[in-house]
Amino acid sequence: MEPIEDLDVLDEERVRQREVDGEADEDLDRVKHGYDATAGDKQVYIETYGCQMNVNDSGIVASVLEESGYGLTREQAEADVVLLNTCAIRENAERKIRVRLSMLRSEKEKRDGELMLGVLGCMAERLREKLLEQEDLVDVVVGPDAYRDLPQLLYEADATGQAAVNVELSKQETYEDIQPVRYDSNGVSAYVSIMRGCDNMCTFCVVPFTRGREESRPVTTILSEVSQLVEEGYKEVTLLGQNVNSYHYTDESGTSVSFAELVDRVSRVSTELRVRYSTSHPKDCTDDLLTVHRDRPNVCNYIHLPVQHGNTEVLDRMRRTYTREEYLALTERAKELCPGVSLSTDLIAGFCGETEAQHEDTLSLMEAVRYDHAYMFKYSERPQTYAARKYEDDVPADTKQRRLEEIIELQNQHAKESNEAEIGRVHTVLVEGPSKKSDEQFFGRADTNKGVVFDREDYEKGDYVRVRIDDCTSSTLLGTALEQTTLEEAARTDSITTEPAMA
Ligand code: 5AD
Ligand code: SF4
Fold first, then answer.
1. What separation in Å is there between the alpha carbon of 122 and the centre of ligand 2?
2. Domain range enclosing 430
3. In Å, what is the CA distance from 240 to each residue of 53, 54, 197?
4. Is the CB of 211 under 6 A from ligand 1?
5. How confident is the model at residue 230 (pLDDT cuts 50, 70, 90)?
6. Most buried by CB count within 10 Å: which residue of 90, 277, 492, 494?
7. Is position 368 within any domain?
8. From ligand 1's centre to the CA of 99, what distance in Å?
């Protein structure tokens, strides 16, 4: 069957990587450890591209390097080492990073080579050979499962003047014992990684090739990281993984823990901690999980449920493993079990062989579900994927663009209507910090993940505030703070109540 064919390709690739890494190990033996001593007062600057997982991974990288004596800087000009944590999901993302890399390279030349450059993450995995062919382009190339080796690789590259590489994908590595440095955090909400990799093999997606097979992190280490965050004053966690619904772990007592069970356990760490997760696959969104949303007041009433397309034949070619009808039934079930649930999605326009009628199916599915938010993309062919190998990328560029624009326009209209319907409602908002436009106003999120802006008065970052919605733009709700509250209190008084729009 098709999925097995792709998984075999992945296995072969991994065996090959292990062989190459065997050679690299010998090199490393020649350059003995000792990176702690040489890190000295070197400063590292990390630039992150792509998904939330990469943001969290940059925190892991920072933690590993700090442990080895490196300092972290927010100023690239002060850095001795610049690391780009990269994304390979679409061609555009890679193009942006290549431009950035060539800028950094000319800076390295200006500084007579006294600047080390590293490529981390998905592009490192994908482009190892290319990056190395042009050897002076980068000093270290490190895949998503090899961050523990970074200090040693930097040492090696510095000592030998040769690029140092580790792009081995591991079935075991979950960095379960590493507390990421949360240097870009607002101090209120934090990401917690619960699993890595993806076994789904959607035909358009490069992730299984760049991040490898699925591996779940032990439950106890997740719960202790969440407890630590609560002690530090965090009020919201987002559980992260490429496909969180596939989470499964057998704990010390032999109990098998599913994703629904994990979310329940995390929600019991503190009644004042909001729990979100990202990103989920519709095929694994069970009634058990929807029930946890319904029964646990601090599990947010918001689900990101990427559909990708509205036509069953295209979904089949994408290997999404559900039909249009099954997906629609799932969203109906979510709305039935969790009244008021907010849904968002990912959509791809112009996939291989997409006809005009199939594109219309995406638009009609959007009409049926009415998402509060969507991430919308033009199909971009990715090397190694099943689609790149077996299908023709045959939708003309201008047609792809026009179809994407139609999707975006419809989504904007739905978001606007959904926001207008909020006027007069009261939401419990978690304050994240000042709004982008004014220090006199706060920005926070409602339970449903919608952004809310209101006058800050005497409220503080990290407070839960009941806010009445008075107005909106297509992307933000504008409101008036009524009073401070707690999540427990909000659950008792029902977090969404309807009040008149005007006093
Ligand atoms: N082309 C366009 N969009 C893609 N995505 C993943 N791979 C591709 C691709 N080759 C989108 C999907 C996925 C999101 C993270 O990125 O919608 O859910
Ligand atoms: Fe890619 Fe998501 Fe499909 Fe996994 S489930 S292959 S990460 S689109």
1. 14
2. 425-498
3. 6, 10, 11
4. no
5. very high
6. 277
7. yes
8. 21
Q: 277 and 212 in one domain?
A: yes
Residue nearest to atom 13 of ligand 1 (CA): 346
User: Could you tell me the two tokens for 125?
Assistant: 């995995």
366 CB-near residues (< 8 Å, 6+ apart): 310, 347, 374, 407, 410, 411, 414
Last residue of a domain, one of 300, 335, 369: 300
pLDDT digits (tens, 9 = 90+) for 287-316: 999 999 999 999 999 999 999 999 999 999
In this prediction the pTM is 0.89
Q: What is the mean predicted confidence (pLDDT) over 437-445?
A: 96
Summarised one tens digit per residue, pLDDT across range 332-352 is 999 999 999 999 999 999 999
How far apart (Å, rounded) are the C-alpha atoms in residues 399 and 365? 20
375 CA to middle of ligand 1, Å?
Answer: 9
Residues 56, 161 within the same domain: yes
CATH of the domain at 243: 3.30.750.210
Higher pLDDT, 256 or 6: 256
Q: Residue 6 has what pLDDT?
A: 39
Q: What is the mean pLDDT of residues 410-422?
A: 97
Beta carbons of 84 and 120 less than 8 angstroms apart: yes
Of 11 and 163, which is predicted with more confidence? Answer: 163
346 lines ligand 1 (CB under 6 A): yes
Distance 69 CA to ligand 1 centre (A): 38
> Which residue bears the tokens 């001795």?
80
Ligand nearest to the CA of 375: 1
* Ligand 2 pocket residue status of 117, Cβ below 6 Å: no
